[in-house]
Structures are given as C-alpha cells and as structure tokens.
Design brief:
This protein has 442 residues and is mainly alpha-helical. It is built from 18 helices and six strands.
Length: 442
C-alpha cells in the first residue's frame, strides 16, 4: 500500500511563477477587454496577448531596486513587448492584478480540495456499506452505551463531509471574484464594462462594490470553511486513534510489512497517521485567525493583509490537500476487527440492554421512577462484580445482567422471562439501519 496524495499539484498553484502567471492572465484579460471596448488598437492587444511574458529572476532583480513587486512584474513583462507595452496595466491599480490573480489561484486550489472531499466521501461510503451491520458498542463519555454498527459511525462521517462539501461549493461562489475598478475602486479610469468583460474572460464574477481590494470577508469565509472541515477530519482521526488503543483494539491503521512503530519497543503499532492529522488540523484552524483579522483594513485599503496571505493561503491549501489524502488513505486501508467489536460489546455483561428493559416496564403499567430504580439496581450489581474481576457470564453461560434481572422478583411481577430475554436481542438495535442509510446515501 502506497499513500497517494496530490500535494505536488497543489504546490504548483502557489509557486512564485504561478503567482506571476495569474497576474499575467488578469492583465491579458484587461487588454482584451480594452480592445473589445475599442479603446486600444486590436493589433496591439493581439501582440500583448501573444508575446507578453516574464522572468521570475528578472522580476526579483527589478524589485530589489523598486521595492514594489507589481511594478517589477510590469517592467519585466514590458521588456518582452514593443511599443504596445504602453497598454499593459492601462487604467489599473496593483490590487486589480494582485487580488484578481489570487482569486484565480484560490479557485483552482479549491477545485482540487472539492475533488479531494469527494474522493474521501467515496472511501467512507464504501467502508460504511461494507460494515453496515457490523455490531459494535456506542460510547458516550467514553463509557459503553448501547449497540450500534460501525457502518453507522461511518455514515455519520459521510453526512458530515457532505455538509462540508456543500459549504466549500458555496464558498467557491464567494471567493471566485475579481476586480478591475482602479485606484480607490471608483472606476474613474476604467468603465464597469471593462471589468465585466475581463471577469467573464477569467471565469470570475466582478466584485459588486470594491474599494481598492477584493473584500477580505471573502477570504475569511474560505479560511473558516477549511478550518471547520479540518475539525471534522480531526474528529474522525481521534475516533480511529481511540479504536486502535490496546484496551479497545476494534480498528487499526494499516501496518505495512517492514514498518516500525518504536525505536525502543519492537511490538509497537502506533496510530501515527491519525495523530499526524490531528496536528495538521490544529494548523489549518490557526490560519482562520489572520484571515478574519484581515477583514478590517484602513479606509479603502492598506497592505497589512498582504504579508499574512503569502503565508496562510498556500499553507492552508497545501496542508488541507495533504490532510484529506492522508485521511482517505486511513479510511480506505483501515483494518476493522468485528470479533473484537463484539467482544467489547459483551464486556459489561449485558448492561448495554438496560434501556431496552427500562422501556418495557412502563408498557406494563410501572411508573418511570420505579422502572428506573429496578433496572439500575440490577445494573449496579453487575458493575460491582466487574470491579471484583468476575466473569461477565454466570454459571449458566448467561450474561450477568440477564441473570440478575431474571432473579429479581419485583421485575418478574411485571415482565415474563420470555419478555426479559427478548430484550437481549441485538437485532432490535439494527432494525432501522437500512432506513438511516437511505437518508444518508441518497
């Protein structure tokens, strides 16, 4: 088994070359729009579209003098053109190129993330169908509750990811926005039609009312969407980590031949992938903070947001991409142990059926308070015997709890032996699994 992930593809979206290439797309779209409006010669526009290029090395050389990356970029591109270069960046301000270029990068990157989510959902659904009726104990507060199936656990994960998928698709609509509105966003030097033509060319929507930047609440929406999804991925990872604990051992990350778990203890098989995912989720959530703080800029704009976005945007996308592929690997190759799940389900000597008995008594005319008292009284006896290290079955091979209930005269006055035994049927807890799956996997 080889772990597969798309990080190199995502990384390519955020190189310096990719950044300048996005700016060039925006500038070319503006030139085409100017020509369409009849404001610049079509021949000049064609030359720019065909010949405009840049050199990262040359941009860095120029920026060392100008201390302005967009001016350095424009100069580098102009050196690849002739007289027609006078129309390059015509009527635009820096943020027109920069913010619209970032929108192209975010859009392309979010498309990858959305594909990743769909991939993970497919893996979750496959394992959910495989373990649709695999019984296990449900836990609250880490304590055994009632029987569920591992398929239901996975269905919860799938449904949660479906919500994130919808959120990401809606977020795409929020962040796929650009502008060519000029300094202060007043369109004084470029008509609104120019922006509309250029955005259509780029596959973006115009910012309805920019000032000098695309508004950063859009970026914050992206960051919080990724952070929220990362928290769900961590939720799944934490559950896998719990299931792999030696005392539980109901599921385990795939352990490859030749893999080593500890430099000192050769027996160790550690949940390293899901622990790694937990750490990655913490980082992705951390990126949401600067994104939200970037919303409040001075007046029409400042550049306090710029430095943070050079960090958090590429890092958030690359880390999320990697995390999704790693989680997919965990799910697709997870070793599931149904026998251990059943063993743990029986670990408390039948106590998982207590509510089933509780609900039968009111049907026979017993008050809720009396029913709870009877059922809990016998449950506490089982806990005491488990604390003493006694077996979870009695000498008749019955669960401890069933034995105590059958011997309780007050209970037997209301429920027959047959009715009590009927309460200890696992099928009762799986009768609606098909219906739940129909809800989730439409």
């Amino acid at each position: 088994m080889v772990e597969r992930y798309a990080r190199p593809i995502m990384e390519e979206k955020w190189t310096q070359h990719a950044r300048y290439a996005a700016w060039l797309e925006v500038e070319k779209a503006a030139v085409k729009a100017w020509a369409k409006l009849g404001k610049i010669p079509q021949d000049d526009a064609d030359k720019i579209v065909k010949n405009a290029t840049f050199s990262v090395e040359r941009i860095e050389e120029i920026e060392a003098v100008t201390k302005h990356d967009l001016i350095a970029f424009n100069t580098s591109v102009s050196e690849s053109l002739g007289e027609e270069s006078r129309w390059f960046h015509y009527g635009m301000t820096s943020s027109d190129a920069v913010d619209t270029g970032v929108a192209l990068q975010m859009k392309a990157s979010l498309e990858i993330i959305i594909d990743d989510v769909k991939m993970l959902m497919e893996s979750i659904e496959k394992r959910a169908q495989e373990h649709k009726m695999t019984l296990m104990v449900g836990r609250s507060h880490g304590i055994h509750g009632e029987p569920i199936t591992f398929g239901l656990t996975l269905a919860v994960w799938y449904d949660e990811m479906a919500r994130h998928l919808l959120n990401l698709e809606q977020t795409m609509d929020v962040i796929a926005v650009g502008q060519i509105s000029g300094a202060m966003g007043n369109f004084a030097h470029a008509p609104l039609e120019l922006e509309e033509y250029a955005m259509a060319e780029l596959g973006l929507k115009p910012e309805p009312c920019s000032n000098q930047v695309v508004h950063r609440d859009r970026y914050a929406r992206l960051a919080t969407a990724l952070a929220s999804m990362a928290s769900s991925i961590e939720k799944f990872a934490v559950q896998v980590r719990h299931l792999q604990r030696t005392e539980v051992y109901e599921a385990e990350e795939y352990f490859a031949k030749g893999q080593k778990g500890s430099s000192a203890m050769p027996h160790k098989r550690n949940p390293i992938l899901t622990e790694n995912i937990t750490g990655l989720a913490r980082m992705i959530r951390a990126y949401a903070m600067p994104a939200m703080e970037n919303v409040a800029l001075w007046h029409e704009r400042d550049i306090s947001h710029s430095s943070t976005e050079r960090f958090w945007l590429p890092d958030a996308f690359i880390t999320t991409d990697f995390m999704l592929h790693r989680m997919n690997n965990v799910i697709a190759n997870l070793t599931v142990m149904p026998e251990n799940m059943m063993k743990n389900l029986n670990l408390t000597g039948g106590l998982v059926f207590s509510q089933r008995v509780l609900l039968e008594l009111p049907l026979q005319g017993v008050s809720r308070e009396d029913a709870y008292r009877i059922v809990q009284r016998n449950a506490m006896k089982v806990w005491e015997e488990i604390q003493q290290g006694k077996a979870t079955t009695n000498e008749k091979g019955e669960s401890l709890y069933l034995g105590h209930l059958l011997a309780d005269e007050e209970l037997r006055n209301s429920l027959s032996e047959e009715k009590i035994r009927e309460c200890f049927n696992y099928d009762y807890y799986t009768k609606n699994v098909d219906a739940i799956f129909k809800r989730v996997f439409k």
